[in-house]
Amino acid sequence: MRVLSSNPPARSIRQDRRLSALEAIAVVAAGFGAGTINALIGSGTLITFPVLLAVGYPPVVANVSNNIGLVPGAATSAWAYRPELEGSRPRLKRFSPATASGAVVGAILLLALPASAFKAIVPVLIAISLILIVFQPRITAWVMARRRTHRPHGGPLLVLGIFGTGVYGGYFGAGQGILLFGLLASSLGGKLTHVNAIRAVLAGIANLVAAIVFLFIADVAWEAAALVALGSTVGGFAGAGVGRRLPDAWLRAIIVVVGLAAIVQLLR
Known about the structure:
Layout: H1 10-13, H2 21-40, H3 45-54, H4 59-69, H5 71-80, H6 82-85, H7 89-112, H8 115-134, H9 136-145, H10 156-171, H11 176-187, H12 192-217, H13 222-239, H14 248-267
């Protein structure tokens, strides 16, 4: 049984035409950027979501299709982080159920609440995400100054926090990676590169679980999802290679610009 939404199905919205060549290129490029940024720290949705809005998809359909399209990118970035993930299996086994169950809750909330609620809530979530991105260097410095190394798996509060970020990831997701990184880095010992690799896997699990829910009970714009998937697959590898050579300030500036564009688009 499909969850009914006040949004019409994606195919009825775009049945008059397919994406033009330029629109398709823009969506693939956005997918590449999102896959790269997700591998680095997260918030790639702030690249793809505004582009999907700009080419004509309504907010909930754009979010659902974007979520599905970013799954391959999450998989390739996790693959690229294999060296950093060595020895992390016990932590992933402990944290994965929390992020997965949270993602289920978030995905159901997205589809159960009215589309008008999503349109009202998401600008606030994007604004919070942009604030996190702008202040990410200070957040990282604060986290490093307060790191605790005596609890190899964190504690119950960390698991609860991971569940909360899973809910956020299933509902929208932009900024989830930064929140996860802050939680993990302030609670776990080890190198930050290893913590970031765990962050990438957990965010990818939330993405995948929400996508599975959407496959069964949501309307998906498959053309958009496929194009985002194409770009994000390559971008996931780039995030562990070429993307790391880009100045952090440039990445933050790009995300802030497209995030503000998404807010403007949603408030029209």
